[in-house]
Specification:
Helix content: 25-40%
CATH architecture of the largest domain: 3-Layer(aba) Sandwich
Number of domains: 2
Largest sheet: 7 strands, parallel
CATH superfamily of the largest domain: HUPs
CATH class of the largest domain: Alpha Beta
Shape: globular
Number of strands: 17
């Protein structure tokens, strides 16, 4: 069978599709005319909400693997699911999110079939003869274009925030269950425990408002005030790599090339200089506001609004003002 069409792997968490997976449908839509129809592969356990959501995002059909074996993000198990779907769909292109799981699964699938693997790409184009994928290199200081012949299928992981998830359409995809036969080798690794985030904590990657503290705030005690500000704004608290490396905040809050990718409506950076490692993780923010004493800081220059001041003078007043408005 000749390869055609696009297979999109949808990660789920708590029964819902992860935002990074929904963005893949934006990437698929950009090359659909060249490659053919989109098939979504929704994987997990208790994933009816995710299936319902994905079925309206432009796919022709949705393959569903709702299985207790897939309740946890184990790469070997998920790779078996993708390989099974591959045999059914025979896709010309398989898209996965550039998450920890997505990167592992993509590498396993590409190696198993001996096909090109584009990692962490930010742009994808297709000609009659080639796949052309653009990806950052040298800590995202440069972009390079990688090419592969269309004589063979390809696998690609898409960096979070590169494409926007399409709006739900009025059309409903055909939904089909996919049966997967797992071997003992697929189940050699198993998840023993999942650590849940505290109740009420906003998911950093999906938060509409993100408040970020950098090394310029001076120490870990400053984050108590930033946490108050974050709560008043209804957002999530993040940090830079320097802050995480110093042990002031946990790595789970780090934004950047080696941390989370965010795309909030409002990004508020406090004491953040704007190293490339950090800015690649937040450059898709709609509005960037910065509080920094250094007018020449890189993030100040890329901000929509910048306040050149000591954050110790600004943040307490901002907290007081927000509390006053909330009291009214």
């Amino acid at each position: 069978m000749q390869s055609s069409g696009i297979l999109v792997f949808v990660e789920t968490s708590g029964g819902a599709a992860r935002a990074t997976s929904l963005e893949l449908f934006g990437a698929a839509g950009a090359v659909q005319n060249a490659l053919g129809p989109v098939t979504a592969l929704v994987v997990g356990h208790g994933i009816a909400p995710a299936v319902e959501q994905v079925a309206t995002l432009g796919a022709e059909r949705v393959l569903v693997v709702d299985d207790p074996h897939c309740a946890h993000p184990v790469a070997a198990v998920m790779a078996r699911v993708v390989l099974t779907a591959w045999d059914v769909v025979q896709p010309a292109l398989t898209l996965l999110p550039s998450t920890t799981l997505g990167r592992d699964v993509a590498a396993l699938v590409a190696a198993r079939h001996g096909v090109p693997h584009f990692a962490d790409i930010v742009s994808l184009d297709v000609t009659a003869e080639q796949f052309l994928a653009t990806r950052p290199v040298y800590q995202s200081k440069l972009l390079t274009t990688v090419r592969a012949s269309r004589a063979r299928p390809a696998v690609a992981t898409i960096r979070a925030g590169t494409y926007r998830a399409p709006e739900p359409s009025g059309q409903q995809a055909r939904v089909e269950d996919l049966t997967v036969a797992f071997s003992p080798a697929d189940q050699r690794a198993r998840m023993t425990r999942m650590v849940e985030k505290p109740r009420g904590q906003v998911d950093l990657e999906n938060a509409p408002v993100v408040v970020v503290g950098g090394r310029g705030v001076g120490g870990p005690e400053a984050f108590a005030q930033l946490a108050q500000l974050t709560e008043l704004l209804g957002g999530a608290l993040g940090c830079t790599r320097a802050v995480s490396d110093l042990g002031w905040r946990p790595h789970a809050e780090q934004i950047g090339q080696t941390g989370k990718q965010v795309r909030p409506r409002l990004y508020l950076g406090v004491g953040v200089s704007g190293a490339v490692q950090h800015t690649v993780g937040m450059q898709g923010s709609e509005t960037i506001v910065v509080i920094n004493r250094d007018p020449n800081a890189p993030l100040v220059k890329m901000a929509d609004f910048a306040l050149i001041a000591d954050w110790n003078e600004v943040v307490p007043r901002l907290i007081a003002r927000l509390r006053e408005r909330r009291g009214r």
